[in-house]
């Protein structure tokens, strides 16, 4: 009897170990690649996306625990197109299943071309230039685009009832494209628009803002540039005090960092933002995202992290689906990603033939007393808009 | 065996390794080959810069202008006029050479004044590229620039093809530099370093010779810029006229030994590949710092650069090793 029992225990233990072993054999570790500017002029925005990607990997490892695990290998492209291409090639050589990352349309262009040549998916939220998707690369995907930013800026300016708007914009591809889109849409609606282009090397905006003040006499100023440009424009405006009712910008403006670093310049300024600051989340995924972000980086997430998270989570889910369908190793990931139809932290995401998310539309936040309050569209607002109101 | 014969033998072996060994060993590794191509791109500009400095006696801070003009000329010719890529690359060099003619008045200046003038010219060309939107695409630049073609079944548009092209450009530039150095022009230019007035007195057209060196240096840089445009397949004014196309080649030339023909090439390969393959994996966010320290150490301990240090020539000889 004793011997039979011992035999039974041995057989059971063997069966259990075989079962566990079989389970472990099914579990797979997927290596994702990430090419981002972590040094150079785009280091700050690159770091923001990098954090979002890390949160997505952490959360995916929790939700797929015991089944699959995920790792990300990140290479700094040093804000250089050539080094971005080299980074993609290194990631390809290291056997990543896909690439998430990239910042700046001019860097994403050649980097995603290298990924396309290798047949690897490249998903991003860092480049909104229309040219990127017009190339029709089957492996290129992005979750945001110029249209979404332009719609938010145009929508807010219209709701504010602006009749004359001065658009002050940087002469880069993405910024020029967005500024021209705003100009066309507002002009078609009978708004008088003054267009003022500036160069990236501009540090003193007083002559330009003086022209806006004396020549245009607008109701609102629309800024399309990046952080340093906004600070320069607002500093010049604070000196010249043009008689406007609102100052509106787009990306990299309605952020916690800008509120902390330039409180005197930011008050009442509008910018695109998916999140209020401090963050208020109710959706379970969003709550978990914010908690994980806090745990990993000891701070509240901003919109850059949110975009990095969403693009990476969509990629991970598609990788798992393709793996389950047995198509991952046969180039089936782009098709699987194209089947995406998800409600995410930035709204609904689907991809068209060119990998663009045509559902993308942004929200507008306003700096109010060190916070960023979502004020547009009305159904997404979490506070009241200060209008008319300017920082000076 | 004489030194000259040894040098020739070494050069033949080095070229055989470069043309056969490197593609065989790294042909399957696009990453490493891509880094070598990037290093050779810098090497090409470094050779052109050293040629101007060493033979023309001019320190240029504006080679990014020639690089940018060459790359835009070639890209626009290929994209808008359908000129074959190989021809447009050479015409890119011609475009850069023509642009250098606008800089000829600066030849009257010396030392830091010439350096600053050429820097200002570079900025002018960048502004022109930004403003000429219908031709250059403006600040948005040009994407999907045609790549090098496939010839007799060999794809020059891939990494190995690109490597062979840029290697050939660099080798030809170095041979041209060496040939001029050994010619009577080279002798005259060398004499001009010691006393320009005296060489003029004996009938050496010093301004013409300096102008010729400037045009040749611009041509080489323009061809390298054109190659890069077709290899990367992308251009915008900030990238094409980036100060990096001036600073890195200068650092490479000084590191390798700018008074030697092959020093700039060795310097470019050393600083770029060591930085990307060795320092970057160790220190992802501060690897450039190590490179800076290494460059400082090289200048302090071997002012002549890496090549003279490797060849172990006496210091006295180095100091007088003009051209």
UniProtKB/TrEMBL annotation, chain A:
Pfam families: Peripla_BP_6. Gene3D superfamilies: 3.40.50.2300. SUPFAM superfamilies: Periplasmic binding protein-like I. It comes from the Bacteria. GO terms for biological process: amino acid transport. Residues 36-361 form the Leucine-binding protein domain. Keywords: Amino-acid transport, Plasmid, Signal, Transport. Residues 1-27 form the signal peptide. The keyword Signal applies. Belongs to the leucine-binding protein family. This is Branched-chain amino acid ABC transporter substrate-binding protein. It comes from Azospirillum humicireducens.
From TrEMBL, chain B:
It is a multi-pass membrane protein. It is found in: Cell membrane. It comes from the Bacteria. GO terms for cellular component: plasma membrane. Its main location: membrane. Keywords: Cell membrane, Membrane, Plasmid, Transmembrane, Transmembrane helix. The chain crosses the membrane at residues 9-26, 32-52, 59-79, 85-104, 111-129, 161-180, 211-233, 239-258, 265-283, 289-310. GO terms for molecular function: branched-chain amino acid transmembrane transporter activity. Coiled coil: none annotated. InterPro entries: ABC_transp_permease, LivM-like. PANTHER family: HIGH-AFFINITY BRANCHED-CHAIN AMINO ACID TRANSPORT PROTEIN BRAE, HIGH-AFFINITY BRANCHED-CHAIN AMINO ACID TRANSPORT SYSTEM PERMEASE. This is Branched-chain amino acid ABC transporter permease. It comes from Azospirillum humicireducens.
């Amino acid at each position: 009897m004793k011997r039979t029992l011992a035999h039974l225990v041995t057989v059971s233990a063997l069966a259990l170990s075989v079962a566990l072993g079989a389970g472990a054999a099914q579990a797979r570790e997927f290596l994702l690649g990430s090419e981002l500017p972590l040094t150079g002029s785009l280091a700050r925005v690159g770091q923001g996306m990098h954090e979002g990607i890390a949160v997505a990997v952490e959360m995916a490892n929790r939700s797929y625990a015991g089944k699959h695990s995920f790792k990300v290998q990140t290479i700094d492209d040093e804000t250089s197109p050539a080094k971005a291409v080299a980074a993609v090639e290194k990631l390809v050589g290291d056997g990543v299943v896909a690439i998430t990352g990239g910042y700046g349309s001019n860097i994403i262009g050649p980097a995603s071309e290298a990924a396309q040549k290798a047949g690897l998916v490249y998903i991003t939220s860092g480049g909104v230039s229309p040219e990127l998707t017009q190339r029709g690369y089957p492996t290129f995907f992005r979750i945001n685009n110029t249209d979404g930013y332009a719609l938010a800026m145009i929508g807010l300016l219209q709701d504010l009832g602006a009749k004359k708007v001065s658009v002050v914009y940087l002469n880069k591809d993405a910024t020029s494209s967005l500024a021209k889109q705003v100009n066309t849409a507002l002009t078609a609606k009978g708004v008088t628009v003054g267009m003022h282009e500036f160069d990236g090397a501009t540090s003193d905006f007083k002559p330009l803002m003086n022209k806006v003040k004396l020549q245009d006499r607008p109701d609102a100023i629309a800024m399309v540039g990046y952080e340093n440009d906004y600070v320069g424009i607002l500093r010049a405006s604070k000196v010249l005090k043009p008689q406007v009712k609102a100052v509106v910008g787009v990306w990299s403006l309605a952020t916690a960092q800008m509120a902390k670093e330039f409180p005197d310049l930011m008050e009442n300024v509008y910018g695109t933002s998916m999140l209020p600051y401090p963050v208020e989340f109710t959706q379970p995924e969003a709550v978990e995202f914010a908690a994980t972000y806090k745990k990993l980086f000891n701070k509240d997430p901003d919109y850059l992290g949110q975009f990095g998270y969403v693009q990476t989570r969509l990629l991970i889910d598609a990788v798992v689906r393709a793996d389950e369908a047995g198509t991952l190793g046969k180039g089936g990931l782009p098709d699987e990603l194209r089947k995406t139809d998800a409600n995410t932290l930035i709204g609904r995401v689907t991809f068209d033939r060119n990998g663009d998310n045509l559902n993308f539309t942004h929200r507008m936040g306003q700096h109010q007393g060190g916070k960023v309050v979502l004020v547009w569209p009305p159904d997404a607002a979490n506070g009241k808009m200060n209008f008319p109101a300017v920082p000076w | 065996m004489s030194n000259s014969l040894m040098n020739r033998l070494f050069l033949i072996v080095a070229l055989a390794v470069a043309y056969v060994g490197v593609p065989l060993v790294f042909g399957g590794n696009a990453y490493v080959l891509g880094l070598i191509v990037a290093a050779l791109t810098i090497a090409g500009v470094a050779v052109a810069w050293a040629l101007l400095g060493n033979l023309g006696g001019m320190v240029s801070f504006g080679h990014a202008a020639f690089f940018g003009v060459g790359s835009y000329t070639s890209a626009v010719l290929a994209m808008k006029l359908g000129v074959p890529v190989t021809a447009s690359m050479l015409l890119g060099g011609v475009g850069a050479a023509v642009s250098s003619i606008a800089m000829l008045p600066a030849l009257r200046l010396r030392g830091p004044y010439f350096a600053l003038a050429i820097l200002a010219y570079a900025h002018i060309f960048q502004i022109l590229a930004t403003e000429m939107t219908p031709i250059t695409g403006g600040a948005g630049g040009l994407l999907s620039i045609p790549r090098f073609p496939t010839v007799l079944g060999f794809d020059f548009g891939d990494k190995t093809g690109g490597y062979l092209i840029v290697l050939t450009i660099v080798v030809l530039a170095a041979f041209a530099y060496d040939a001029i150095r050994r010619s009577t022009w080279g002798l005259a230019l060398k004499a001009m370093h010691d006393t320009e007035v005296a060489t003029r007195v004996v009938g050496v057209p010093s301004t013409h010779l300096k102008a010729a060196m400037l045009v040749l240096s611009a041509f080489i840089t323009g061809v390298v810029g054109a190659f890069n445009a077709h290899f990367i397949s992308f251009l915008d004014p900030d990238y094409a006229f980036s100060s990096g196309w001036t600073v890195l080649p200068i650092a490479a030339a000084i590191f390798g030994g700018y008074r030697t023909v092959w020093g700039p090439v060795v310097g470019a390969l050393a600083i770029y590949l060591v930085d990307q393959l060795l320092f970057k994996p160790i220190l992802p966010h501060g690897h450039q710092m190590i490179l800076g320290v290494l460059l400082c150490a090289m200048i302090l301990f071997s002012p002549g650069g890496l090549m003279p240090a490797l060849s172990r020539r006496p210091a006295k000889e180095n100091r007088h090793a003009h051209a």
